[in-house]
Amino acid sequence: MENPVLESAYWITERSKHVSIDKDSVKRLAAEIVSSKSQGLCNTAVWGSHELNPSTPDETTADWVFVVDILNFSFWYDDGTPVIVEYRGRVWSGYWSLVAAINKALDSGIPITTPSYYATITDETMAAVFASPSGRLCPLLKERAAALRDAGCWLMAEYDGTFRNVVQSCERDAVRLASLLGESLSSFSDRGVYEGRPVVFYKRAQICVADLWASHNGEDIGSFDNIGSITVFADYRVPQALALKGVLRYSETLLAKLNTAGEGGLLEPGCPMEAEIRGVCIAAADMVARTAGETAALVDFYLWDWVKTLPEEALTVPMHRTRGIYY
């Protein structure tokens, strides 16, 4: 099955006005990734080595992954500061605040990863799960609760109440699984229109597939015949990482927009600049992956982990932000 995300990405890239690809930097990054893999720094085992991720998969892991990826969006406040959650004596921020919140709920006896439970989850419970030491409410709490209820009802009605059955129904086809999520659940329907043509990005649907693959080390429920057809997951950090590596080039107009005081890189959902950042990011990473002989999913994991290690002063290319439920 062809990946509609990749088709959309190259279509956008051919017409992009504000984002372009530097081919020499593609080659340099590909060589860096090949070198990192030879040192054991770029593989699925890295996923399980993260402190908050399941280190050993079991029958519950697929449902854990699904819930994390249902809720994996918008972990920043309007002033640019990240959402924080305290767990096991540490404060976790951004994406890791989500994982910490899910694990904390499970530890406290809330069956947050059980579809029959979250099919009726309340907004109040959602707020309690994301309780922060800052006292600030997590953005889009109502939308998160609604996304869980929608997914839970879908699983209960059509898949006997477990995400494993959804995965098995796709018969090891990664693109089919991502497309099924994107077409069946509104919170995964990450779509847009660019120059009059519908385009798809499916960020969370694809990362759900990749997380299944990585969490199971490509085995059992995480075994896919075409995992290489999944693209990178175009969010905030991966485009920024590619720009910092010189792979993506932003126009002066776009850079000025991202650097505008008071706006903090905020772009309207679905605007041409946002579509170009995401679409060209996907195409560029595909070129890197092909050159390196690697999957785009591992390229994504590598870039995301790398950019998160950089100090603030090293982030010389600004990150765009878009408020919404898709990433």
Brief synopsis:
This protein is mainly α and 327 residues long.
Which helices and strands appear, and what pairs or packs with what?
Layout: H1 4-15, E1 19-21, H2 23-38, H3 45-49, H4 61-70, E2 84-87, E3 90-93, H5 95-107, H6 115-118, H7 123-129, H8 141-158, H9 163-169, H10 174-184, E4 191-194, E5 197-200, H11 203-215, H12 237-244, E6 248-250, H13 252-259, H14 272-292, H15 296-308
Helix pairs in contact: 1-14, 2-14, 4-11, 10-11, 12-15, 14-15
Walkthrough of the structure:
Pfam families: Q_salvage (PF10343). It catalyses: queuosine 5'-phosphate + H2O = queuine + D-ribose 5-phosphate. Catalyzes the hydrolysis of queuosine 5'-phosphate, releasing the nucleobase queuine (q). Is required for salvage of queuine from exogenous queuosine (Q) that is imported and then converted to queuosine 5'-phosphate intracellularly. Its EC number is 3.2.2.-. With 327 residues, the chain is mainly alpha-helical. The chain has one domain (4-314). 51% of the residues lie in helices and 7% in strands. It contains 15 helices and 6 strands. The strands form 3 sheets. Strands 1-6 form a two-stranded antiparallel ribbon. The protein has a two-stranded antiparallel sheet with strand order 2-3. Strands 4-5 form a two-stranded antiparallel sheet. It is globular. The chain starts with a helix and ends in a 19-residue tail after the last helix. The relative contact order is 0.18. The mean pLDDT is 95.
